[in-house]
Amino acid sequence: MAIDPHSQLTGISAFVHTVETGSFTAAAARMGLSKSAAAKKVARLEDRLGARLLERTTRRLNLTVEGEAYYRSCLKVLDELSATEALLASRQQAVSGRLRINLPISFGRLCIMPVLMDLLAQHPRLDLDVSFADRRVDLVEEGIDLAVRLGEPGDQASLIGRRIGTQRSVICGSPAYFALRGYPQSFEDLADHDCLGFVRDGRSSPWTIALSDGALRDLAIKPRHTVSHGEALRDATLSGLGLSYLSTWLIADDVRSGRLESVLLAEPVMQWPITALWPRVRDLTPKVRVTVDALVKAFSPLPRWDRLFSQSP
């Protein structure tokens, strides 16, 4: 039997309003219907589902077990519909106002800012307030509209996230270093080379490689020197101090110019997600939407810096 979508939605609406108000009378007032019309819509919904959703007494209405589960599902559907309507409406609005955006220091300066400059050329009424920090700022508390984070964004109940790309890393060194020490031919050869480690939270970060079966393995590198800043580690690598495991976005220009050479013992590992985050609000403002769309377009499916390192045809 075919179902009339309009009838289905009005039945769901009558049911949700009845649960929220506690009576058919109050639900009918919300919907601009008579009490009997609201009750009939819920009754038809129950008939169609073949389940009783409400227990009716002379004093009050109570949800049944089936009604409780169906009510939660209805809320999810209505929230999705409301969010979609807000998104479509936002696309018709002008992009203007001040966008407060927080970025990682090096990645933000080298990779995000060029995208934002292009965006400003397209939307002259958009104003930027850009801050840089490698710590995780509280977007709601600090009034930030949008943030970009490297690594797992974490479980943020007050935020919405969209993955805009993936951070990849490769082993690299300077031509002067390779002229002196030669090129490693396997991962095992790295034990005979000077390796530079990136220190995070007091520990040297591992070098992650992809095995032939696709599984990931962390190499037990014993670094000769350690550095706690990505750009400083790149500088040490450029000076010939040793081999480093660096993000492709950080060294792409150096590899392209010949100042660094990558050791492609395997495809660059997709190491960390790159995520755009914004406060969980019902309305997605046009200024946030166009910025996230521009970042996704710039970094997906493969950003310009990663094309240089891919071994795929």
TrEMBL record:
Keywords: DNA-binding, Transcription, Transcription regulation. Residues 9-64 form the HTH lysR-type domain. The keyword Transmembrane does not apply. GO terms for molecular function: DNA binding; DNA-binding transcription factor activity. It comes from the Bacteria. It holds the Pfam family HTH_1. CDD domains: PBP2_CrgA_like_6. The keyword Cytoplasm does not apply. PANTHER family: HTH-TYPE TRANSCRIPTIONAL ACTIVATOR TTDR-RELATED (PTHR30537:SF5), HTH-TYPE TRANSCRIPTIONAL REGULATOR (PTHR30537). Belongs to the LysR transcriptional regulatory family. This is LysR family transcriptional regulator. It comes from Acidisoma silvae.
